[in-house]
Write a structure and sequence with these properties.
This protein is of the alpha/beta class and 509 residues long. The chain has 2 domains: 310 residues, Alkaline Phosphatase, subunit A; 98 residues, Arylsulfatase, C-terminal domain. It contains 10 helices and 19 strands.
Length: 509
């Protein structure tokens, strides 16, 4: 762990710095390339409100909360990685799922017991039990696991649960969630005598990616840079990429979604849609989220709570926008799983800074609990990232970060690595372990005799060149492989001693 240890509240005395409010804003399937404060975004993307949040805080280059929606959310509720989340399981019609709260406690329940009022607004995707009255004092949620028939209604006519009571609600969901969050911050349903934690979970920009009516067509005719390897081939990458390729050359020579051509004038997410129209649509959908963030920040400012509130903006994971042939999440590339992350509290944290060190979901739980003074009675996997917030540009940080993808399986279900369909039951992507160590990323697919991956993200941020087979990188490959095994042991991965050998381990390139 880093030698540098600095408390976040070092600028203020304990008397001047009481337990902060915690506002956790969570988008869905959001590439960091959809925020204009990230230099990788097209130059016509504009997200002024989230940019302002970054100017008032620390922007992390990358954040890895999970490979897909449900394990990401389970991680930020438990502080544990997917392979060690006990009793969580999928059942019934997707996205049906359940968990035993005695074996799988969520940290907001402890925050409640230790003096916080807890609230959640928006998408719920973690078991049919939303935890109202146990984990949450105040809750307005779209419970997808409990209503599979309504689970596709990301933007309209949602079955919502208001503090335990269900009702059908019309209107554009992003705006609805923002309205309720603003009301809560301003005092509706909130205990004025307690610090609060609000988890605001937008469903945007998840498919069917649907901009608000006021934003449809706002970015028409904009042209997006095409990823270098959108059409392949990918000779130095694992074989599954041939099953996940989503793009073809369109009639005008620009990429288009694979499959039958869309009807003339279509702007939906469907086969035949042009690459440019898809990128326009994604960013048009993002505009309502940016407006919502602006409204929520104004509510904090107008109610005098901005300096008292630690604000964290992120997303459950990224979403591939053509990179490596993807139009999905799950795969271990930054384009598909890396989320944006901004942390802000004016007067307490540095402002306008960028941190190159990545974090994961247990790290955020550790941060929230340490800042709130909440002690958890179970083991978590998080690192104390407060030194990174105190000095975002520090080089005194030597702590590798692990992420695992085990499909739709959790906890003890992951102790045995499956073969066949269950190994690739999520978006045709096999199970894997991924480690970030400084500028390098290591990936080990849990497939026998498969290619390992090693990327220098400083020299090759788009992960185009796999260094794993290059002799000059052999020592680094072996070192990162060993560090990954160490982290799997630390985080209680039952499969750590039964991982299949890789191509390099079998003597191949």
């Amino acid at each position: 762990m880093p030698v540098l240890v600095v408390a976040l509240g070092s600028r203020l005395s304990a008397a001047e710095n009481p337990r902060p409010n915690l506002l956790f804003i969570y988008a869905d399937d959001q590439s960091y390339k959809t925020l204009s404060c990230y230099p990788e975004s097209p130059n016509w993307v504009k997200t002024p409100n989230i940019d302002r949040l970054a100017e008032q805080g620390i922007r992390f280059d990358r954040c890895y909360l999970g490979a897909w929606c449900m394990p990401s959310r389970a991680g930020v509720l438990t502080g544990r990685l997917q392979h060690a989340i006990r009793s969580m399981t999928m059942e019934g019609t997707y996205p049906g799922s359940r968990y035993d709260p005695a074996q799988c406690p969520f940290w907001p329940a402890e925050a409640r017991r230790q003096g916080y009022q807890t609230a959640q607004i928006g998408k719920w995707h973690t078991g049919t039990d939303t935890g109202y009255g146990r984990d949450w004092d105040f809750q307005i949620v779209w419970n997808r696991p409990a209503h599979p028939e309504n689970a596709g209604n990301y933007y309209k006519e949602q079955i919502l649960t208001f503090n335990g009571e269900e009702r059908l609600v019309k209107g554009y969901s992003t705006d609805n969630y923002t309205d309720w969050a603003v009301d809560y911050i301003q005092g509706d349903g909130r205990d004025p005598n307690k610090p609060w934690y609000l988890w605001l979970c937008y469903g945007a920009i998840h498919g069917p990616t649907t901009p608000a009516d006021r934003h449809k067509g706002a970015l028409a005719d904009r042209t997006a840079p095409v990823p270098a390897d959108i059409l392949g081939p990918w000779p130095d990458k694992p074989a599954y990429l041939e099953k996940t390729k989503a793009w073809m050359e369109g009639p005008d020579g620009r990429p288009a979604k694979r499959g039958k051509a869309a009807k003339k004038g279509s702007v939906g997410d469907r086969p035949g849609q042009t690459y440019d129209r898809w990128i326009q649509q994604v960013n048009e959908c993002m505009m309502a989220v940016d407006e919502g963030v602006g409204r929520v920040l104004r509510a904090l400012e107008e109610s005098g709570q901005r300096g008292k509130t630690l604000v964290v903006y992120t997303a459950d994971q990224g979403y591939g926008l053509g990179e490596h042939g993807f139009n999905q999440k799950v795969a271990p590339y930054d384009a598909t799983i890396a989320a944006p992350l901004i942390v802000s509290r004016p007067g307490t944290l540095p402002e306008g800074k960028v941190c190159r060190h990545p974090v994961n979901s247990p790290d955020l739980v550790e941060l929230f609990c340490r800042e709130a003074g909440v002690r958890l009675p179970w083991k978590t996997h998080g690192r104390d990232i407060r030194p990174l917030l105190a000095d975002p540009e520090t080089t005194a940080w030597d702590s590798p970060m692990l992420l695992t993808h085990t499909g739709r399986s959790y906890g003890a279900e992951t102790d045995a690595i499956p073969t066949g369909g269950r190994l690739t039951d999520t978006s045709n992507t096999p199970w894997y372990a991924m480690l970030r160590d400084g500028r390098y990323k290591y990936v080990r697919m849990l497939v026998e005799n498969e290619t390992e991956e090693l990327y220098d993200l400083a020299a090759d941020p788009e992960e185009l060149v796999n260094l794993a087979a290059k002799p000059e990188h052999r020592a680094r490959l072996e070192s990162l492989r060993a560090k990954t095994i160490d982290e799997l042991r630390r985080t209680e991965a039952g499969f750590v001693d039964s991982m299949p050998p890789t191509k390099a381990m079998n003597g191949g390139n």
